[in-house]
Amino acid sequence: MIKEKRISGFKVDRCDLCGLCFHLCPVLQQPIEEAKLEIKNLIEGKDSEYVLTTCTTCLSCNLYCPQQANTYQLILERWNDLYKERGALPLSRFVCPTEEHNIWQLLNVFFSNQEKQWIHEWMNYIPKPSDKVLLIGNYTHLFPFIIGGSKLLNYFKPIDRIDQWEGGAYLYQLGYLDVAQKVAEKTKKDFDKWGVDIVVPLLDAVHYLFKEVHPKEMKVSHDQKFINYHDWLIEKIDAGDIKLPNQLNLTVTVHDNCYSKALDGVYWENPREILKKCGCKILEMKHNKKDSLCCGFGVGPSCVGNISMVFNIMSEAKKKYEEAEETGAKALISYCGGCIYLLWASRELLGKKIDVYHIIEIVRMAMGEKINYPQDHVKRAWDIIAIITYQLLLSVFQSNFFIKRITYDKNMSTFHPKKYKILKLIRSLFNISAVRKLYAKMFRILMPIMKTR
Ligand code: SF4
Ligand code: SF4
User: Fold this and answer.
1) Ligand 2: which atom is nearest the Cα of residue 36?
2) Exposed, middle or buried, 308 (CB in 10 Å: 0-12/13-18/19+)?
3) Does residue 57 line the site of ligand 1, with CB under 6 A?
4) pLDDT along the chain (453 residues), means of 10
5) pTM of the predicted model over 0.85
C-alpha cells in the first residue's frame, strides 16, 4: 500500500508544542497560547481553527521552528487526510494534466506556431543516456517564450513531460501526498528508462523534491545527479561562458517563492547574485527570504470554496504587489516559473504597473538577447484569465474529484484540442482593451465581497 511507503516528514518527537511556528507565521500571526493549542490539535488530528483554512504553504514555519520538527509537513499531512475524505475542488482540474480541461490542454488553443514548435520538440524528444537533460516542466510550458530560442538552451536537451507534474512539487504542496508518491515513482522509471546521468530542473522546487523529498519522505531514491539551475548559471557566468555585456541598470525587488525556503534557504542567494551580475540593484521587500509572502498560488490548498478560491488567491497576490511597490523598484523578479504565471494574471486583474520578469528573461536581456516584453506576458496573462473564467463556469456543474491517473494518455484531448468555442469567445472579448479594463475592475469590486479570508 502507498501509505506504508511514505515516511512522515513531521518529526513529532522533536515538537515541544512551543507554538512559535504559528505565532511567527507571517500570515497567521497567532497569539502564542492559541498557536500552542493549534499545533496540539493538528498533531492529534483534531479540527484546526485557522491553519488548515488560512495557511498559504509559504514554508516559513519550518524555519521558525527551533526544533527543526518540519511543521509544514504536518500541515501537508492533515490536508492529505482532508483530500482523502472530500477530494479536490472542481477548479483544481485546472492543474491536473490527466483531467479534462486542464490548463495545458486549453492553452494549446492559444499558443503561437513558434511556441507549438518548441513544445512539440521538448515533449517528443526521447533522451539518450549521454544527454544532459533540462526539465522544462509544467510551468515553463505555459510560457515557452521565456527560454525558447535562447542560447541558454544550447547546453542541454530540453525535455518537457507534463505528466511528471514538476516532480510532484505542487501536488505535495496541495497535500495530495499519495499522488505525489506515485509521481516520484513514475519519474524514477522515466529517468532510468532514459538512462541519463544528469538532470537539471528549471525550478528549485523540483530540485528539492528530487534530492530531498523523494528519497527521504517517499523512499524513492534516484540514481541521477540533480544540478540546480541557478548554481549552473552562476558557474557559467563566472567561467565567462555566458557573457552579460548588456548591463541593465535596473532596480528590482525579488520574490522568494515558497520552496526557496527549503533546506534553510540555500536557494535565496544565487538568484540575487545573478541579478547583480546582470546590472540589477536589489531593493528588498518588507517580507523577504525566510519571511517572504506567497505569490497567491499557495492559497489553493486551504480553500474550501471553489469560486472564492480565485478571489482568495488574488487577494494574497495583492499583498505581494503592495510590498513590491513600497520598495520603489522598477521591476518585480520571480525565479520560479509557477509564481510568474500567477503574478502576471494578478498584475492584469489588479491593474498593477510594476514590471514583472522571470529571472531567465533578465539574464537573456543582459546577454543581449531580444525578448518581446511585455507583449508576450500580457497576451499570456489574458489567455490564462480567459481559461480561469471558462473553468469557473464549467466548475459550477462539477463536483469534487480524486486524481486517479497520473500518466498522460496520448489519446486524450490534451493532444487533440477540441474547438472550445466558448473559451475562444471569452478570449476574443479580452482582445478589446475596454472589456479587459471593465473585467478587471469588476473583479476588484467583487474581491472584498467574494474572498473568504
Ligand atoms: S506554511 Fe507559511 S502560512 Fe502556512 S503555517 Fe507555515 S508559515 Fe504560516
Ligand atoms: S513544530 Fe516546532 S515551532 Fe511548532 S510547536 Fe512544535 S517545536 Fe514549536
Assistant:
1) 5
2) middle
3) yes
4) 67 96 95 96 87 94 96 95 92 88 91 95 95 96 97 97 94 95 96 97 97 96 97 97 98 97 94 98 97 91 83 94 98 96 96 98 98 98 96 90 86 66 96 97 91 77
5) yes
